[in-house]
């Protein structure tokens, strides 16, 4: 909801449907975004856990708060709004890409690792996997945005394609997928669902 607002990405559609502010108004869209973010922490606080895992709830809420806030998703969105394609450095672009949607992916993977009682080495590999998956997801999103904007003769925001170019971005997408898979190979625990999600992302044509 917030991401689509006119003051941010100004998207009229989300998954083929009118975005919230187009369907119900900007004021409602802001409140819906606030309500959903607040609801996420209510769900985390109330989610049933086995007794042996209940002690991990506080850490999970801490991780989710960190990755959703100024050091994560919101911080990434701020960078997206405050820098231009001509001024951005590769380091800032990398930070932006890691923090946006990728930060929530990392929070989700960390939550699974905590509940799965991952060892320190497993934790390290899973965090690196999540970062690569987030970079792949954001790069794919940048490529799709570029293709759509090009067709509509739009302006290009600071992203992977405007910085590196279309073909190099496609190669970077493949590299991030491969790096993520390599990290999963280091994890001696059931990671079939993570591998499935990565393969589904890899199979999307860009």
Structural class: mainly alpha
Helix and strand succession? EEHHHHHHHHHH
Helix content: 55-70%
Low-confidence segments, ≥5 residues, pLDDT <50?
none
Largest sheet: 2 strands, antiparallel
Q: Give the total of beta strands.
A: 2
Q: Kindly report the spatial arrangement of strands forming the biggest sheet.
A: 1-2
Which shape, going by the Cα principal axes? globular
Count of alpha/pi helices = 10
- Tell me the fraction of residues in β-strands, as a range: under 5%
Separation of termini?
25 Å
User: Would you tell me the overall average pLDDT?
Assistant: 89
Rounded Rg: 18 Å
Summarize the structure.
This protein is mainly α.
Architecture blueprint of SSEs:
Blueprint: E1 13-14, E2 17-18, H1 20-24, H2 26-46, H3 57-68, H4 73-82, H5 90-99, H6 101-115, H7 120-151, H8 160-164, H9 166-184, H10 192-202
Antiparallel strand pairs: 1-2
Helix pairs in contact: 3-6, 4-5, 6-7, 7-9, 9-10
């Amino acid at each position: 909801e917030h991401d689509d607002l006119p003051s941010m990405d100004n998207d009229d559609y989300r998954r083929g449907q009118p975005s919230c502010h187009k369907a119900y108004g900007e004021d409602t869209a802001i409140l819906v975004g606030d309500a959903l973010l607040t609801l996420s922490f209510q769900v985390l606080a109330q989610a049933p856990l086995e007794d042996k895992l209940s002690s991990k709830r506080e850490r999970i809420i801490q991780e989710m708060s960190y990755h959703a806030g100024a050091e994560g998703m919101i911080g990434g969105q701020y960078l997206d709004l405050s820098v231009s394609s001509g001024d951005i450095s590769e380091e800032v672009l990398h930070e932006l890409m890691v923090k946006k949607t990728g930060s929530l992916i990392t929070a989700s993977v960390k939550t699974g690792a905590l509940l799965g009682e991952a060892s320190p080495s497993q934790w390290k590999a899973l965090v690196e996997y999540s970062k690569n998956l987030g970079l792949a997801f954001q790069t794919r999103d940048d490529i799709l945005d570029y293709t759509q904007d090009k067709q509509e003769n739009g302006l290009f925001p600071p992203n992977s394609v405007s910085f590196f170019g279309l073909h190099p971005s496609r190669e970077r997408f493949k590299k991030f997928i491969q790096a993520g898979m390599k990290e999963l190979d280091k994890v001696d625990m059931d990671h079939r669902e993570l591998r499935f999600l990565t393969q589904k992302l890899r199979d999307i044509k860009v």
